[in-house]
Amino acid sequence: MGGGIRKSDRGFSRGKPGPSRTADLKIQTSNYPHVPVLLQEAVRYLNLKPEGIYVDGTVGSGGHSMEILSHLPENSSLVCLDQDPDAIRLSRKRLRSDNRVQFIHANFADLGRVMQDLAINRIDGILLDLGMSSYQIEKSGRGFSFSREEPLDMRMNPDHKPTGMDLINSLSLESLQALLREYGEEQKFKTLARAIVRARERETIKTASQLAHIIEEATPKSHRPWKRHPATKTFQAVRIAINKEMESLETFLQEIPSLMAVGGRLVVISYHSLEDRQIKRAMVQWEKTCTCPPDFPVCACQKTRIFKRVFKRGLKPDEREIHFNPRARSAIMRVAERISS
Questions:
Q1: For residue 29, what pLDDT is reported?
Q2: Among 216, 222, 249, 250, which residue's Cα sits nearest to residue 234?
Q3: Domain 139-243 adopts which CATH fold?
């Protein structure tokens, strides 16, 4: 599922930050192209406390982590995870002067194993930003962008198989249709799947721009979305399948109640309805008490509330943030707090 845990990425200290921490935290954003979404809100809702252990489960280029560290009490610590080795390299370079932070190459779905490896019993908060980073889209060379002549790779972790090219050229017509319908929520899944099959019969689909062109040609101009490329949902579907994104999220949501200390906060930023529905469903379920059938005279399940939602409706970026960072427009944040052991 995620990248393996590399013990060499340790270097954890719960002491004070090193002398160059302040200067390092002021590295200009221009050196790191990704602009973190809902930045202040993420830090505020983590509710950072002294002697706390916090996790950035999708560190990317370190934007959220940098802000967390600037507010983190000196005797607290931060664990940064990412399944993309480039993200670990970038964020370590950006934040390495602060000895309260450690970096682990791992998927957030592997959090339990990471904590066991680091002898951590419970964490006091975790942030997940489930979106693509600007670095991955613009500089990774893995075919996440529609407009680049890059290999159709789409793997977050290049150590894993298969690639996007493997998938798009091997799935049956029926499987392609199911992929576009379920993971892309694409209404024209039949038309687009047939177009992909016809195109690959002529030649192997090898690049991102090649796939984008196939989808664009199969989509009449009158049916093209106004604000996004017609291949957006197709690329989303392939990426989700290749990286097992829904499976990773499901694993994480099943395990996080046993990993979170009472009072700890889970902060999740998602970007499409598949993820948001899954997160909301889990949080609603965590809030429920008795789930016995209505005709039971007494409760037999003994279920108690384990989390409470900090706010019921998801939080979205305001117009000013979206104007400054258009990629934030589809973001939605949900927050839940652990309330019982």
A1: 45
A2: 216
A3: DNA polymerase; domain 1 (1.10.150)
